[in-house]
Amino acid sequence: MNNVELLQQLIRFPTVSSESNLDLIHYIAQLLEEKGIQVQVIQDPVQAKAALFATVGDPTIPGILLSGHSDVVPVEGQAWSVDPFSATLVEDKLFGRGACDMKGFIAVALNLMLSLADKPLARPVHLAVSFDEELGCLGVKDMLLHLQHLKVEPLLCIVGEPTEMNIALGHKGKAAYRVHCCGEEAHSSRAPLSVNAIYLACDFIAKLRELQQQFKVRGARDDEYDIPYSTVHVGKIEGGKAINIVPQSCQFDFEIRHLAQDDLDKELTTLFSQAQHIVEAARAELPASRAEIQFTCMSRYPGLNTDASHHAIQLLKKWSADDAKFIRVAFGTEGGLFSQALNAPVVVCGPGSIEHAHKPDEFVALSQLHDCEQVLTQFIYDICQ
Ligand SMILES: [Zn+2]
Questions:
Q1: Tens digits of per-residue pLDDT, 81-95?
Q2: Distance 144 CA to ligand 1 centre (A)
Q3: How far is the centre of ligand 1, averaged over its atoms, from the C-alpha of 69 (Å)?
Q4: Are 107 and 71 within 8 A, CB to CB?
Q5: How does pLDDT run across 126-178, given as a tens digit for each residue?
Q6: CA distance linking residue 224 with residue 303, whole number of Å
Q7: Domain Peptidase M20 dimerisation spans what residues (predicted)?
Q8: Which domains, and CATH codes, for the chain?
């Protein structure tokens, strides 16, 4: 199968994050095993999902790790002009959910693995396929533990999210939290005698806005990004029942998108203790009342900040198209997690454009698949033979 035919097969597995990806994983495993490549399927203990890890060459030597996520975002409510899971070829574009984000890269990487199966390699090539990336990089974590256990320390990880084959060296990390503020209901005529949950929320949101100012004025700075500092944002809030009831509950969601250079753990610790002070102040004012602020982490992944001077990255650049650039990307990837867990340089580089991801009529240009195949093949033959 050529790359286009293989990508069509992959798109026809509707691996939306809410569904099982096992059929797709078993399909990939079977193709690899038919070529005698050893495959490890890392089953999720609670869901019908799995990650896959495979190696050609000697796994004890540092090599090249090619990484992709198998899940795709939903298509409901989107106006597609073709069936999103039929993989429709129209002239020089292949349309389908996951075409660019990111089964296109998986198809090229998988075909490359198959072609290397019987070649002598001085360095190994690994393929890592995760799940639940679109839910906040959740499904890669067990696989990374497994790779740490195997002592896999690649020379370079390539995360094949769509960059139009530019080489992304960085992206911001993200932490998203849901905050529950609890006060006590009372008749609004007696408002000063009860803790107002909306006031707790407002006081804490004021702290979030202060943190945004601090990031802007004193935080790390990277002018390669459109917004060159870490950002803080409250995106959703609900609380209270009626104008004449002191609200007992208010809930809101916030996120921090941070430069890898900012210490997010330290900032979160400060935020949590500020919340505690708000609660203590409310309790001190109204000792008989209930006041609480609770946090639930919804998703979290680290930022990526890779140094371009690494030998393997320079070699990848050498084999890239003349107009390929080192860039930063605005979207998050599993790259920061790979970098932390495997102690290896990580770049994000794959076919297609993020402009077409997550949208109706998602597509990848066939020329992008071809470029990806050329670049990866030449780079890997150079570094692994
Ligand atoms: Zn993606």
A1: 999 999 999 999 999
A2: 18
A3: 7
A4: no
A5: 999 999 998 888 889 899 999 999 888 899 999 999 999 999 999 999 999 99
A6: 14
A7: 170-274
A8: 3-171+303-384 (3.40.630.10), 173-301 (3.30.70.360)
